Amino acid sequence: MPFKYTKVEGKPIGLYLALLAEGASAAPSTVTATVAVGDAAVGDTSIPVDALTAAIPKNTVLVFSRAAGSPDTVTVVTTAEAASAATSIPVESFDGSDGDGIAYDLAAADAATWDGLYTAIGTENSPYSNNAQTNDLTAVVYGGSGDISVSKPSVQSMAPTISRAGLWLAEGQLVQDIMQYADTNRNWWAKQVLPDADGAPWAQRAGLARVSNMQHDPPADGLIRISYDIRFVGSKPTLTFPGVA
């Protein structure tokens, strides 16, 4: 009988970064957006929320829970920064066309949490590599017409790295931080999300990192082609599979 499997047609990988405070090594603080009384209806491009405890930047992906269910969540992307203490967040549907409002109603107390990481918009390629360094341990097999050496690779070290390449708009805090603090000893927090065919997170890596090998072209029409390496430090990034039941 044929093998049975579920085909996964991945959507573009999500890449998220944040420059940490000097000397910090923990993930950034989160910000929760809770829908306020007044709700948000299908098609709305602004969500009323309780006063935010910190700003949420433009191009942030937010996944709101829905107490009503069917579906259990609504995914949006912010179209402008929502300042600290703001009581509304400008959004569009994450899966819709330009200008589309939210796909389902949101009620008071539905909520989304921003993890404090900025979206690396315009990413065209971001391959991950363990960059393992190995030594071969060799055993000798006797008894044949000639001795045979059998090698066994032993991992001695690794340098987990994401190599990012692509465009970037010449605006926003993240691109400024990259240009100013790449190739220094400043710590960053990085997350790479591999979506499934529906755009939901299937697997993700996250951890403490340094940004190096930054290169960029002069901006043209507000666009920068920028590349850099995200090198995880201390340990391999934490790998989870939120999309696996």
What does the largest sheet look like?
9 strands, antiparallel
Highest CATH level, the class of the largest domain: Mainly Beta
| Count of beta strands | 17
Could you state the order of secondary-structure elements as H and E? Answer: EEEEEEEEEEEEEHEEEE
Poorly predicted residue ranges: none
- How many helix segments? 1
Task: Round the mean pLDDT to the nearest integer and report it.
Answer: 89
How does the helix and strand content classify structurally?
mainly beta
Portion of residues within helices: under 10%
How many domains make up the coordinates?
3
Which architecture of the largest domain would the CATH scheme give at its second level? Answer: Roll
CATH topology group of the largest domain = Pnp Oxidase, Chain A
Radius of gyration: 22 Å
What percentage of amino acids are in beta strands? 35-45%
Task: Give the CA-CA distance, first to last residue.
Answer: 25 Å
The shape, in one word, is globular
Describe it.
This protein folds into 3 domains: 128 residues, Pnp Oxidase, Chain A, CATH 2.30.110; 86 residues, Elongation Factor Tu (Ef-tu), domain 3; 27 residues, no CATH class. Strands 1, 8, 9, 10, 13, 14, 15, 16 and 17 form a 9-stranded antiparallel beta sheet that branches. A 4-stranded antiparallel beta sheet has the order 3-6-5-4, with no helix packed on it. The chain is 4% helix and 44% strand. The two termini are 25 Å apart. It has 1 helix and 17 strands. The relative contact order is 0.20. With 245 residues, it is mostly beta strands. A hairpin with a 6-residue loop joins strand 11 and strand 12.
